[in-house]
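pinging the channel bc i need a second pair of eyes. not urgent but kinda urgent?? the chain im working w is below, pasted from the shared doc
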Amino acid sequence: MYPFLLFYSFFYFIFILSFLKQTDEKGTLLYNAGNIANHFFTVPFLENVVAKHLDDLEFHVAEKKIKCVDDSGHAVDPAKPNGIKMEMFVFDVFRFSPQFSVLLVHRDEDFSPLKNAPGAKECTPDTCRQDVSFLLIFFFPLFPFVVV
């Protein structure tokens, strides 16, 4: 079996919720990892995917709220999905790789998402700087160094 990812879409919502709550005999979640999208591919591998597997890649359908213009020419920002987006994801090519590795890391040590502009509640440049600062405060005492 090749590596796979579960997608967050309404179609799979109920299945995913029950699937993700599965635990082992000790009560530990069986599926508790995320993908921070740090992928490394060789150019020959990607060229091979395009040359030999492009037709094997499937589109993922995502229902989206798409801003549009009504018959009167007024901008409309819909309250509910009014269209679909056909997507392909970079991780769809994992199954074509003859070599595949996953690094399991502690989120607090290796990932601080930057998704929002300054002033937002989370995932901002300020929260990223704070996360790096906390990490350095933890690691500096572990590695003695000399300032020259």
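so The two ends are 53 Å apart (CA to CA). and Residues 1-103 form one domain. — does that match what u expected or am i reading it wrong
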